[in-house]
Amino acid sequence: MAKLNVALLFGGPSSEHEISCATAAGVMGAIDRQKYNLIPVGITKSGDWILGEDDASKWALRKGDLATVQQNGTKVSFANNGTSELILTNQNGEQSSLGLIDVVFPVLHGPYGEDGTLQRELEAVGVAYVGNGVLASEKGMDKELSKDAFLAGGVPATPHVVIKFDDWMKDPESALEKVRRLGALPLFVKPARAGSSKGVSKVKDMSDFAAAVEVAFKEDNKLVVECGVEGREVEVAVLQGRNNSAPRVSVAGEIIVTGRDFYDFDAKYQDEDSVQLVIPAALTQEELQEMQSLAAKAFNALGCEGLARADFFLTKNGFLINEINTMPGFTPLSMFPSLWQASGIEYPRLIDELIELALEK
Prior knowledge:
Strand content: 25-35%
Oligomer: single chain
CATH topology of the largest domain: D-amino Acid Aminotransferase, Chain A, domain 1
Largest sheet: 5 strands, mixed
């Protein structure tokens, strides 16, 4: 059987560029080379598509300076002839074919890669791609739209208010009045369309609120303010069902943070000693079944395809969904593949499954 040509897209212009590179390293190291020809396509922070090195160690997550895609004089683009042929232009301007691409595996996080923009580009080419489509990506990336969809789908969501940059600049007092109605401190101020906890602040005193808003607006012109929730942070991984069947949901994992105010960027990627990932989480069978049911509802409410990770708080009054991540971290130690491994699907088989789902679309 002929190998499939898989283009792995990673990097990109968002502030999560480096995490995307680490995710790409995970896929490079685990994909079955007997089944797939892998073509690594790095996207620089300025948006240039280049031929990347097929070397997991180069892109792997590490402490200190994280790997980034640097311009190397090459250019990669899809042929403008109605096919999925990928064309390489080398440093001398000479062109050659990288082959017809069977599946694109985009592992970009944040704006451009995860908000529907890249998905539109791939659909214009007509090439199959792993993961969520345009609309689910747009909603999943936008905390305002996703929370609206969850509530409409019968999934309890964290209480929140939305503040837009222009409204804040014109009338901050009106925005503050909405925030006060959320209730007691602490508050979490988050960019509406960013991930990996970029631009997120925990506000324990309202004198710090304006500074938190300023940090969030550096990432996006819309932010979400949520009231602090007392509860356990628990997550499940979701895979699209085969042949139009119901979504499949993994066992649950729990995030336990020590020595930090919350599960921020450094806790996720630089300070593993401050966080403990417990898989499976200590839940009753009834709690797990409820959480899995809510995750499947949330997946369907956004119209998700392929994969997602659903993040919840388990409070004394039950579950509240925090968000769905439509392209979760995919390093071998990330929660998404770890949850599926605990559920009986090993990392290489998980990659196979996602590629097969993409080809079924």
